[in-house]
Amino acid sequence: MSRYQTAKPTTGADRVVTTLQGIGVKRLFGMPGGGSNADLIEAAARIGLPFSLAHTETASAFMAAAQAEITGQPGACLATLGPGAASLMNGVANAHLDRVPLMVLTDCHAGSAGVMQHQALSHGQMFSPVVKWSARLSAGEIDQQLQQAVEAVSSVPYGPVHLDISSEVTSAAMEASPDRASVFPESGAEPQRSLPQKVQQILRAAKRPVFLLGLGARSAAISREVREMCERFNIPALVTYKAKGVVPDTHSWFGGVLTNGALEREVLEGADAFLAIGLDPVELLPKAWTLKQPILSITPWPLIQEHIPFDYELVGPVVPLLQAVAGFLSREDGWSPAELVSLVRRQRDHMRPHGHPGELLPHRVVELVADRYSGARITVDAGAFMFPVMALWPTNEPVGVLISNGLSTMGFALPAAIGAALLEPSKPVVAFTGDGGLLMCLGDLRTAARESLPVRLIVFDDGDLSLIKIKQVQRGYQPIGVSIGEIKWQSLAAGLGVLAVVASSEEALKACLAETVKHPGPVLIAARISSEGYQATIRAMRG
Length: 543
Description:
The protein is of the alpha/beta class and 543 residues long. The protein is built from 22 helices and 18 strands. Helix content is 37%, strand content 16%. The longest helix has 15 residues, at 57-71.
């Protein structure tokens, strides 16, 4: 846990950055302007809080959010006023829907300057739908406002908090404040000492329960407890995209990926009750929940939703609640390991469509990269390739996969990989992206190169926005406006200081992976894939 520095803050900027460091922020990210941005970066340097230049504001928010997800403590990004603040929106919205604690700092005109219209937007109103709390800092109330910001970003469900800060505030002299600890606390109400009668009845009647694990279950302690219960009571566990690794893909009771789609349906239909652990409906496809089995939700925060018909919701620290639940479960007449293995094998086989001889298929890209980088953390963009990645990549621990799930935005994987790699620069991070998604954040290849990060960027290169093209074809439309065309990745990446190689076959991809595995900086591997199998993959995944 972090503490305030012993040196006393002398300006408003010092007050802000020591507060950030006190709640566990490891690094500032941004595409800065002048004004308060410059003051904050300088103040951060004085206390040893690093700043990394991103090449879009949105990317800076993704980088900061990646660090927040991994560390469990807030990330922080900054942007200039007007266009800079507006360009942050996609990254802030991602943090909002994926429940990520993120401090968002924007510059603004000084109050003493009067009414300014140039580059003037109402930042607070703009961000209000996607942040937990927003305020324009004032020098006279900065301590109270920063305390409110800390309380907002520290409370569950987590999410972004916005501070509008003028240079008038960051440059203002401040009285010395006493040393104090400022930690990002464990949140949650006291667990219930006894379970309600209705909950006991659901648990006693359950002979074939299934765990539904979501983003609220991504802690080492919850993971250990769930795995122990899976083994003790023979309970299969399905994981959402965000919960990959809570029960590892290689675990004997891993039941597949939960999306509210078709792929996992056989496992779900074989259950007689569901134990939803940290499952937030924001994670699921926007389709009706049609299953009729009783659902018990165990969640760290109250859910405001109408999507999933929970029969009962237990709110509080998850591990004690799971321990209480275990007292009413039985392993008699339940699932057999062989039955589950067969169901999961069928799921994975559906993600491996056949192709023509010599073609490089998306699922083989995933499997070959996994052979070389097993155990690495991965980041995943939105796109058709996402389905084989999420179904087939073996994840061993919580937060082993970073993905924009609630917002499902493109342009996420590369910036998130940069944020992750900056936490542990000696460990490679694999980023899976499409050609369209990479083009949205291309400038941050330079960020990865400048920082000499071991990012392995796997580009599924088919020259199209494939997922959109498939949707057009399914509706009987012409595939208009989805062609990207050929990109000379090696030339493009070289200009940004990144090593790039191209593979058009399995053997070529194996060779590229082997040749670049020890490269000290980022590597872009363009896998020229056949997209013909995507329709079958999507049909199997989503129905």
